[in-house]
């Protein structure tokens, strides 16, 4: 009786009966698995993943029916959803992008794109055995860093060199191995943060070194260093302030003066050069960037630098200096923890070759970008403009500036030509381009979206134009 009463009141059992009927109509996993489409998916992705996908999708349809949906999906619908589920869970997170920002060494966008030769060298070593730590002549254990050491010695003039995982690791290893427990003197103007949390004072603390700051933010004299030297001093340390610039009333002693002072007191002189510049940047209309060989010529004992900034290679850190000190670095336990991998070594060896043959501006992508002429850049921007116009998208070509970036040459700009697209909803267009299948990063200035041909790799031209056309037409 009571049950009948309830039925009359809210109709719940009817409702439940209808839901049960719908749920029973959902195809079974077994029946789905024997469809040709599922078999194709299974060949490609394996049975357990397909099962998980089908369970997941059917689970969602069951939930939808519980929530009041009255339609039964077809087998096709379910398999399509399963394929979409697979696509999402298997999609790589790290994907190629188009850098139209005009910032050449963009740390957030992976710094230096490698040359094809370096990428091929890397790929070849990746899929085979190699003599990474094997001495072919003696038929026994060898050392992984010999593979690029001769090249680095030739390029820097240093007696010895060591390659590690990155420059942060190089600085940490240098300070730990050579100065732990001692005082290290640094100018206040160089207590820098490189970005991504690399702060010189923190690295010094981590290495067990006592930081002794001298001078002021804008002015430090040689006498400030000499006054700070005590019997506990281990080294004089210079960090190239690569991502900012102090202008106006400033002074720092010359590297050669610091190196001499250190030598006079039997101290190490350590130089974190950072950018890995080997070419004279003033040749390209940039400001002067101290080079790695210049640091060694000035007499600094150890010079460290990144391989993926201006050097234009893979992620790595390079230390160079006299054999007895580099040997100390090599022997330190930390060296094992920060060692470089075989693929980076292969790419590095290939990256260094054009430096030795004098073909860097022709063969290294970073230096190809830096050395592109104004007329080449203008011609490229105009060709983009014409392609876009031919499909009804209007754009102008205007003058502007590219930047070297990546914590190199702060404030130094290179004249360029930019493709400029004016748009009512420019922020929205920029966001759509960022979220496109091959994401595009551009700059917004005064309501216009700016695309710099300097940093767009030539092989990406077509994808860029397609991305622009699709998204401009979608957001209009
Ligand atoms: C970039 C930079 C670092 C950090 O180098 P990574 O290779 O990114 O670890 C350290 N010091 C200076 C001066 C730098 O410019």
Fourth-level CATH superfamily of the largest domain: Type I PLP-dependent aspartate aminotransferase-like (Major domain)
Q: How far is it from the N-terminal to the C-terminal residue, by CA?
A: 64 Å
CATH topology of the largest domain: Aspartate Aminotransferase, domain 2
Radius of gyration: 30 Å
The helicity comes to 40-55%
Structure, explained:
With 476 residues, the protein is of the alpha/beta class. It folds into three domains: 2-90, no CATH class; 98-104 and 367-475, Aspartate Aminotransferase, domain 1, CATH 3.90.1150.180; 116-363, Type I PLP-dependent aspartate aminotransferase-like (Major domain) (Aspartate Aminotransferase, domain 2), CATH 3.40.640. The chain is built from 21 helices and 15 strands. The strands form four sheets. The chain has a seven-stranded mixed β-sheet with strand order 4-10-9-8-7-5-6, sandwiched between helices. Strands 11-12-15-14 form a four-stranded antiparallel β-sheet. α5 packs across α6 (75-90), α7 (116-126) packs antiparallel against α16 (342-357) and α8 (146-156) packs parallel to α16 (342-357). The longest helix has 20 residues, at 47-66. Bound molecules: pyridoxal-5'-phosphate. Pyridoxal-5'-phosphate binds at residues 166-168, 171, 194, 198, 239-240, 242, 272, 274-275, 306, 317, 407. Residues 166-168, 171, 194, 198, 239-240, 242, 272, 274-275, 306, 317, 407 line the site of pyridoxal-5'-phosphate.
């Amino acid at each position: 009786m009571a049950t009948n009463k309830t039925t009359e009141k809210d109709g719940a059992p009817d409702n439940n009966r209808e839901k049960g009927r719908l749920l029973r109509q959902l195809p079974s996993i077994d029946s789905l698995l024997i469809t040709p489409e599922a078999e194709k998916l299974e060949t490609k992705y394996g049975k357990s993943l397909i099962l998980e996908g089908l369970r997941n999708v059917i689970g969602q349809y069951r939930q939808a029916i519980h929530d009041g949906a009255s339609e039964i999906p077809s087998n096709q619908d379910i398999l399509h959803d399963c394929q979409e589920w697979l696509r999402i869970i298997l999609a790589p997170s790290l994907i190629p992008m188009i850098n139209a920002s005009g910032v050449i060494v963009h740390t957030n966008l992976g710094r230096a794109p490698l040359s094809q030769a370096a990428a091929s060298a890397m790929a070849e070593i990746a899929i085979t055995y190699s003599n990474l730590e094997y001495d072919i002549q003696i038929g026994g254990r060898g050392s992984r860093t010999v593979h690029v050491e001769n090249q680095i010695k030739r390029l820097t003039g240093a007696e010895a060199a060591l390659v590690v995982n990155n420059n942060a690791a190089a600085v940490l290893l240098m300070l730990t191995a050579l100065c732990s427990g001692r005082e290290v003197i640094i100018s206040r103007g160089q207590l820098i943060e490189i970005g991504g949390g690399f702060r010189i004072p923190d690295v010094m603390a981590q290495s067990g070194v006592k930081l002794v700051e001298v001078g002021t933010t804008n002015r430090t004299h040689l006498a400030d260093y000499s006054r700070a030297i005590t019997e506990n001093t281990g080294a004089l340390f210079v960090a190239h302030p690569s991502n900012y610039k102090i202008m106006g009333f400033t002074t720092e002693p010359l590297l050669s003066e610091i190196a001499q002072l250190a030598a006079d007191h039997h101290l190490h002189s350590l130089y974190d050069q950072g950018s890995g510049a080997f070419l004279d940047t003033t040749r390209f209309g940039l400001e002067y960037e101290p080079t790695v060989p210049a640091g060694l010529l000035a007499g600094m004992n150890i010079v460290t630098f990144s391989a993926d900034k201006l050097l234009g290679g893979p992620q790595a850190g390079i230390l160079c200096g006299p054999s007895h000190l580099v040997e100390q670095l090599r022997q330190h336990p930390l060296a094992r923890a920060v060692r470089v991998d075989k693929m980076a070594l292969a790419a590095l060896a290939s990256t260094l070759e054009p430096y030795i043959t004098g073909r860097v501006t022709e063969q290294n992508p970073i230096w190809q970008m830096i050395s592109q002429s104004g007329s080449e850049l203008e011609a490229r921007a105009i060709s983009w403009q014409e392609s876009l116009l031919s499909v009804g998208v209007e754009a102008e070509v205007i003058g502007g500036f590219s930047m070297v970036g990546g914590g190199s040459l702060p404030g130094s700009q290179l004249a360029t030509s930019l493709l400029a697209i004016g748009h009512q909803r420019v922020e929205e267009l920029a966001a759509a381009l960022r979220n496109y299948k091959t994401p595009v990063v551009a700059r917004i200035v005064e309501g216009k979206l700016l695309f710099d041909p300097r940093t767009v790799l030539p092989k990406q031209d077509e994808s860029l134009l397609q991305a622009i056309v699709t998204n401009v037409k979608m957001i209009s």
